[in-house]
């Protein structure tokens, strides 16, 4: 059978429920679904293992790069930013979660975290130059706007033909492109708006905590504001 206009797994669930109500199988008989449904379930099972493992490894790499759990966590926070856009894109276009769309989520996660790395690295550099936390955040939001937008725009424009395709293979190409384009739109917007605020909040709390317990000032920043050490 050829399922159209709905998700394959939802169709199989409804079919199983109908069979359970109306069909009494003889002893020793059972029903097994194959084809695209079987392939989808196998792939989704693998992705359910691969995606968390990948995000965990990326978190470890980010921690080794920044030597800071809060900074690595802020960059990983771009993952749900992208997740929101991908889900909304599938909902608006009437598509369903499938293997191509799941692969699209993996792709957009990488671009979203790259944008986060660009912002956090620049803000850390500004602190090393002796700027205050507020000044570092403002400089990053203003000067890194163009690189972040360029990264997202290149990916979105490159996927527009795939997103609008209607020919052979569109059923596998469009879900991937929809997720990537939708995820990039929300992740870029939320990264530029929320990530600087998160950075300022985290660094301000850390600075106040260090002052309360009498810890030496952040080595990235000169406490007198007179320049980098």
Structural notes for this entry:
With 229 residues, this protein is an all-alpha fold. The protein has a single domain, classed as Multidrug efflux transporter AcrB transmembrane domain (Multidrug efflux transporter AcrB transmembrane fold). The chain is built from 8 helices and no strands. Helix 2 runs antiparallel to helix 3 (69-76), helix 4 (78-93) packs antiparallel against helix 8 (170-213) and helix 5 (99-128) runs parallel beside helix 8 (170-213). The radius of gyration is 23 Å and the shape is elongated. Residues 221-229 have low confidence and may be disordered.
In brief, what are we looking at here?
The chain has 229 residues and is an all-alpha fold. It has helices at 8-22, 35-66, 69-76, 78-93, 99-128, 133-143, 145-163, 170-213.
